[in-house]
Every structure is written in structure tokens, then in C-alpha cells.
Amino acid sequence: MTLSAEQQAEIDAARANPQPTLRAVAPGMEKHLYTAQPVLDHGFVRAIDYMGDDAAIVQAARVSYGAGTKHVSNDEGLIRYLMRHWHSTPFEMCEIKLHVKLPVFVARQWIRHRTANVNEYSARYSILDREFYIPEPAQLAAQSTVNNQGRGAVLEGAEAARVLALLKSDAAQMYDHYEEMLSQDDQQGLARELARMNLPMNIYTQWYWKTDLHNLFHFLRLRADAHAQYEIRVYAEAIAAMVADWVPLAFGAFEDYRMGGVTLSGKAIDVLKRMLKGEEVTRESSGMSIGEWREFKGVWK
Asked: Where does dUMP bind (predicted)?
């Protein structure tokens, strides 16, 4: 992980100067504020600011639904009810702002979540650092033979060494050419906004990313899942650890109903009913495709 001297100075100054406040404070998140959590080889995630806590979710729900929720005996029960029945608005009352340093190819995957406010480091105005994501050997894998979007067997021996050498040499050469093309040292060169187009996708960028808890849970459900690409999953896991400390009741419900739960299709429910009655159901008699049947079997083993 690499923090600039200016970023570290900002962190030290902020943590050394706590301010009194009348707003809701989540002790679990306070310990994370400004502290950078390392991710990958040069990346990090750090919480810059947040709003709300578990109580804010409950408060919003009771304003919204009024007497209809008064039978819920406690805050945890209400939060679990909201999560179980997909009532999303109360979770939108909590927000978080993160500073993230990540490879460009991860950022391009991440930005598909269009429910956040983002401000990214601009290579039009600034020169990017010579920092690239180089996978650990365990992450150098071949294409999966059963999943067009996934990885298969880990590369070994000479093949792993060959690929790793290409990644390192290509990144170094592209950055060398980037520096040579820039308008500097009395040469005319290219403008920064043009010179950047030759940089590799594994170079690091940074951004501020602000979102509400409902949309953050959606991000985590997809990106902290075991099937997500490793390079974005480790960021999601680092964020999830912060969220668990920030809103422990909401995160517990999220783990149960979203991360630990499953959604079954009408066909799948029908097959389960037939199985419970003792019928032997095959893929052919289920009405499911091969992929649906494989995923269904993966749920009930």
C-alpha cells in the first residue's frame, strides 16, 4: 500500500483533531475513519466520512410506516423485517464516503454500479504514479472451461513465469513511453490528456466514492460474493468489514437474507415441492436449463 506524504499528513492531522458533534456517531465506524486498509499490492480503502447508524434506519422506518411497525418489539427485529421484505428506503438514510486506490481495470468494473457519487483522480491534470497491479502467483489462472466470465486452473512453472514476466515488462515499457511522450524537459511532447491513452489497465487510479447503505449492500452482495472477480472482491471484503462495525444490526440482517440466502424461481419452488412429496425429479423433467439445474443443485447440494 502506498499513501502519498500529503495523504498521510492529512490522515494524521484529522485523527489528531477530533471534534465534538451532536449528530449520531457510530463507534464502530469512528475507529475506521481516515485509516487506510491495504488491498492488493498498492491499493487501499479508507473511510472519509459517514452519516447515520442502525438507529437512523429504525427512525426512518417508523416515520415512514408509522403504527404499522409498532408490533416489532426491538430495533433488530424491525431491521430484519425491513431486510426480509425488501424495504429499501430506510437503508438509504445512511451514507458513507470512501477514498479508494485501485487498478484501472477494477475501477471500470466497479463504475458499473451507477448509484454512487464519484470523483476520480484526473490524468488530464496530473501525472499518474508508476504503480501497477501485478497478481500474486496464486491469482495467475487460465480461462475457466465452464464459465466464460471466470478463472480455471492456476498457472504453474514456466507458463506462470512467462505470463508474469510479460505483465511486468509491458507495464514498465508503457510507463516509460508515457514519460517520454509527456510535455516536459524542454520537449514539446504530448498533452497529459493524450499521453495517458497508452497506459496499461493495471495502472492504479484513485477516487472518492460516496453511496447510501441500500446501494452499498447491493454492491457487496455482488462483489463480495465468492463468484466475483478476485481483484474487486478483496475491495468489497475490506468495505464489508467496515460496514459490519458501522451498522452491525443491518449488516447481520444483510448477511442472513442477502449473502446467506437464496432466491428461487417459480420452477425451482415447484421442483422442491415435488421432491418433498417423494417424487424423483431429473433435470429433464424439471423444465430447467442445464445451467439452471446446476445452480439449483448447488443450493441444496
From this structure: 109-112, 120-124, 196, 223
CATH architecture designation of domain 5-133+202-259: 2-Layer Sandwich (3.30)
Average pLDDT over residues 178-205: 89
223 assigned binding-site residue: yes
Find out whether 28 and 55 touch, Cβ atoms under 8 Å: no
- The alpha carbon of residue 50 and the mean position of all alpha carbons in its chain are separated, in whole angstroms, by 17
110, 238 Cβ separation under 8 angstroms: no
Pick the catalytic residue: 80, 192, 223, 233?
A: 223
Q: Which residues does residue 52 pair with via DSSP β-bridges, in sequence order?
A: none
Angle value at C-alpha 273, between 272 and 276, nearest 5 degrees? 85
User: Is 21 labelled a binding residue?
Assistant: no
Determine whether the annotation assigns residue 124 to a binding site: yes
Instruction: Please identify which residue in the block is written with the cell numbers 429433464.
Output: 284
Rg (CA), the chain: 24
The Cα 235–Cα 137 span in angstroms is 19
223 a catalytic residue:
yes
Rounded alpha-carbon distances, angstroms, from residue 191 to 120, 157, 195 = 19, 42, 6
CA 128, CA 107: separation in Å to the nearest integer? 15
Amino acid identity of residue 41, one-letter, is D
Name the β-bridge partners of 222.
none
Q: Tell whether 121 is in a known binding site.
A: yes
Only one residue has cell 504453474, namely: 156
Give CA–CA dist 45/107, Å, rounded.
Answer: 13
pLDDT in tens, 83-135: 999 999 999 999 999 999 999 999 999 999 999 999 999 998 899 999 999 99
Cα separations in angstroms, 173 against 127, 168, 176 = 16, 9, 5
